[in-house]
Amino acid sequence: MSGKSTKPNLSQSQAAELVKKRYNLTASEVNVLPAWEDQNLHVVTEEGGQFVLKIMNSEDSKKPDLAEVQTYAMNFLREKGLPTQNTLKTTTGQIMFLEDIDCGHGLQKFLVRLLTYLPGIQIANAPLSPQLLYDVGQSAARMDLVLKEMKHPQASALQRDHLTWSLSNVLLLEKYMKVVDGLPLQAGVRMVLHQYKTCVAPKYSAFRKCVIHGDLNHLNVLVQAEDSNAHKISGIIDFGEIHSGYYVHELAITIMYMMLEHPKPIEVGGAILAGWESIFPLNKTEKDCLFWLVLSRFCQSLVLSRYTVTQQPENEEYLMSTSKNGVRILLELLKVGKGQVEKVWFQTAADLNHKKTEIEPSN
Predict the structure, then answer these.
(1) Nearest to 330 by CA among 255, 229, 228
(2) Strand bridging mode 39-45 / 50-55
(3) 138-168, pLDDT tens digit by residue?
(4) What is the pLDDT at residue 2?
(5) DSSP for 321-344, written as a single string
């Protein structure tokens, strides 16, 4: 994980100058959007458009191939009907560029893109009905099936074997465990790591591979209200963690984050699983490992956020957003146990898909 000095921190005036210089757009408003290691700025222009100026941290800016594939993936998904952002070209026709910027650590090179600003609110701020959760599961599965079709000359950049956030690398948490010393969380994380090591890691040969978004969380899915007071998905954002992984990883990550804002978190998994399996049914081994993979993502989020706060104390409120409910939910899942949680998930998923089959008109 990159350290504090790699994160960009442009001022509003620096951002406005950059947008003018590179895109010939005049910023009337520049607002900071939350971000982990990059910097995201909401730019409103006098010309009438709204955009996100995305400045990649200086460490990842050294990997232009990865950024190019990330950008290509967003465009590819949008062309296939998924609600992702579009990338604007500079006045010289570039979709991204390296800029020397001084953010207080001397001149550093940062990779910059300007993306369209998608409408809607974060799903964290919407009521999570079973239908909306079902739609999230469907969208996640559709996205991964589309990404499976994607071809790009730099596709090998997605083979990110050392990505700390990959569910393939859960055991890397062992080197960050000092940040949970003495906390009630510590024993729970150790138990999950043991289960991952003994019950999940030996079964990877049965998991089906694909390219995954890798961070379909409650802040990266946008929704809009419909007339009936229901919500529909209006945006999938932030492809910073896209990598070669496994279908079941995408599902586990999605379930985990959608639990955070739900009054009955254990019930979340069934509706998402139903939507997912309406597109891409899990095999027996993937189903058997889903519980521990969901808990593994909780552990990654809770441990890595605490570690990152030691590097970015000024960003603590955003970094610790998962912890507000995450610790309680993880410990509750462990207490209820794999068998009981799976019973709720799998029965709910079967019931929902049975109902949907019944009400769908036959051809």
Answers:
(1) 255
(2) antiparallel
(3) 999 999 999 999 999 999 999 999 999 999 9
(4) 43
(5) TTHHHHHHHHHHHHHH-HHHHHHH
**Do 9 and 39 contact (CB within 8 A), yes or no?**
yes
Q: Which two tokens stand for residue 98?
A: 């390296």
How much is the pLDDT for 5? 55
215 counts as catalytic = yes
The pLDDT value given to residue 4: 43
Number of H helices, E strands in the chain: 10, 10
Reading the block at residue 151, the tokens are 């071809």
Look-up: residue for tokens 């959608």? Answer: 258
Q: Tell me, what's the pLDDT at 128? A: 95
Catalytic residue among 215, 227, 238, 288: 215
Residues lower than pLDDT 50 in the chain:
2-4, 363
Q: Which residues of 170-206 are buried (b: 16+ CB within 10 A; e: fewer)?
A: bebbeebeebbeeeebeebbeebbebbeeebeeeeee
Q: List the strands of the sheet with 27-33, edge to edge.
A: 27-33, 39-45, 50-55, 107-116, 97-102
> How far is Cα 236 from Cα 173, in angstroms, rounded to an integer?
27
Question: The whole model's pTM is what?
Answer: 0.92
Nearest to 78 by CA among 253, 223, 218, 235: 235
CB 269 within 8 A of CB 341: yes
Q: Could you give the angle at which helices 64-79 and 130-149 cross, rounded to 10 degrees? A: 120
- What is d(CA 295, CA 299) in angstroms, rounded to the nearest whole number? 6
106 CB neighbour count, 10 Å cutoff: 8
d(CA 110, CA 38): 10
pLDDT at 209: 98
User: Per-residue pLDDT tens for 28-41?
Assistant: 999 999 888 899 99
